[in-house]
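Ligand: pyridoxal-5'-phosphate. Inputs:
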Amino acid sequence: MTTQPKAPQTLNKVPPTTSPIWQPFTQMKTAPPPLMVRSGQGAILELADGRQIVDCISSWWVTIHGHGHPRIAQAIYEQAMKLEQVIFTGFTHEPAEKLASRLLSHLPPNLSRVFFSDNGSTSVEVALKMAYQYWLNQGQTTRTSFIGFDGGYHGDTIGAMSIGGSSEFWHPFKPLMFSMQSVPYPATWDGDQEVELKETQSLQALDQLLEKDPHAYAGIFIEPLIQGAGGMKVCRPEFLRALRQRAKQANILLIYDEVMTGFGRTGDWFACSKSQTAPDIICLSKGLSGGFLPLAVTIATEEIYQAFYSDDLHRAFFHSHSYTGNPLACAAGLASLELLEANPEQFQSIETKHRRFIDNWIKGNPRLTRTRTCGTIAALDVTTDNFDGYFNSLGPLLRARFIEQGFLIRPLGNTIYLMPPYCITDELLESIYRTISQTVSSL
Ligand SMILES: *Cc1c(COP(=O)(O)O)cnc(C)c1O
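Predicted complex:
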């Protein structure tokens, strides 16, 4: 192995810039400069130059109540005056205890043990390690691999990338990732005639893996009801019920990554409640703190917890982060849950509006196809002579056009999706649809 790095053939000149910030998921050379945001209220972001932008994607899927909700801001302030942070091993605090119990009351009753971390990727890393050690602690040493779904996205850390291994984002990192097996995600849309066939094929692929190597896998990871970053691909609840049955029969853990789908996104509290299925482990993050602070949980069944519960320190779950269970984030989480509990109709009612505006603005547009909705989320594809997918150049082009008109919409390649904060008004939502239709027609 050589340690000498190859000299680069061409050095791209870095133009002078006033900001030292290297932005995430950004080709700094070709991307337009970032917009300076001054404030946010509800669905509206206000830029430093005074322009107003409608946040149609809840700032990367987190701000479920919209920006700057005063109840959450107040809860954080009050908690900060009492206790801002404390070591979370050997110590606990009221916001974490209350939040954990309150969360469980909205989840299937088999989920009972709440493990805190900071973000979606860490919640997935926790689930990976938990599932893996669960078998090890019972003397089963062969269950070292995982099953995921084509196009799955579970975060950007190495473990989370690995379980989303089929994604095109990870190309350079493949040698660092552990191997997994992937089966097709039975994505469907309005008017799809082949959904049952796709579901059967997916289950058959799963059966084949499980029959060939019944003791090789620790768990199956899925984004239930809708895959996010992989292109807002929707599957039916029927599929999850079949998957649940398969996993039980094969005695393999079923892990729901509800980082995006949690807290009302699917039009129900969680994708598990909407599909009436109960996973063995669930990962939650994005909407958990109402979008105010980084926070995540991984929640497991009693059976999993019991496999770690022992006089032997080696069987403990060795995982923690500096800010695990941060009191401010937990206080925000509690306030956010209270807002959801006080008004679940808000997230329950958005799908009907999406459907109405899709009928009014999208259905007749020949360039727009494969419309689909999942609760508060709506998506559609722009027909293209090019390939479908994230690297389709329509993505950045459309994003720029939408921003010019005052809308934050970030297409995933040729897939346009909306994931608005639940406070979005009917008028604003309709104006978003009108803009999408007219902008695509003018391409
Ligand atoms: C965003 C996302 C993650 C990763 O969460 P981060 O907080 O960005 O690390 C994991 N899983 C799903 C389904 C997501 O949408």
